[in-house]
Design brief:
single chain, mainly alpha, about 0% strand, membrane, DUF554, transmembrane helix
Length: about 230
């Protein structure tokens, strides 16, 4: 039973519901400040992940190649359009939702290096402490954003559950092929993406975070190739 995985997704869902209920009591100023604070917290978490990197060149190369591929196929526009279509089909009003911000939130929940690493560890060894700690962070993250965007934030738990279950199912195939160095470089690559997400949430820089996500696919192969060459 993937306790950590399910707890993490439940944290997003419950946090979104609580934030929706409490959002009407928050002023616009408070919502704006809390969002910026979360952005700063995301940048800090990303820095912690980047510090763990074993070799920075393959992590950076993965980000460059992955972003190029994402831009080539216009991944963010496709995801944004898909999410907007889904929200319109539900009894929700998607008009008041900032889709750029919503896409960033979905990316943070579903594709953070910290989260994927936690799923891999739970799938391989049953260690759930990483995802349990992430569940607490995601609960408050969802709470903050739901104050602005409403119950749609809770729905981000659905793609998160799908992505995490897929990774969990593949973990017993993936982890035996990895080394601590490969995992550290993967975490470092994920940390770069988390920093980018924090900059976007804080409205410091409008970085196309979804277009960067293919970098996670290239992180371990590039790290392995780098280790064989150097």
């Amino acid at each position: 039973m993937p306790i950590g995985l399910l707890s993490n997704c439940a944290g997003v869902f419950v946090g979104g519901l609580i934030g929706t209920a409490c959002g009407k009591y928050l002023t616009e100023r408070m919502k704006e400040v809390l969002t910026m604070i979360f952005g700063v917290a995301a940048i800090a978490n990303g820095i912690v992940s980047v510090i763990k990197v074993e070799s920075m060149p393959p992590a950076i190369l993965a980000v460059i190649v992955g972003t190029f591929l994402g831009e080539l196929i216009q991944l963010e526009q496709r995801v944004k359009g898909g999410l907007h279509w889904i929200l319109e089909k539900l009894p929700l009003s998607a008009d008041h939702i900032d889709m750029d911000e919503y896409v960033t939130i979905v990316a943070i929940f579903c594709a953070s290096g910290f989260g994927i690493y936690g799923v891999l560890m739970e799938g391989m060894s049953g260690e759930s402490s990483i995802l349990l700690s992430k569940a607490v962070m995601d609960l408050f993250t969802a709470l903050i954003f739901a104050g602005t965007m409403g119950v749609a934030v809770s729905l981000a738990a659905v793609p998160q559950l799908v992505v995490f279950l897929l990774i969990f199912a593949l973990s017993q195939l993936i982890v035996p092929l990895t080394t601590p160095e490969l995992l550290n470089d993967f975490m470092g690559c994920g940390g770069i993406l988390t920093i980018a997400a924090g900059l976007r949430v804080s409205k410091i820089r409008d970085i196309p975070i979804m277009n960067m996500l293919p970098a996670l696919v290239f992180a371990m192969p590039f790290s392995s190739l780098w280790g064989m060459i150097f």
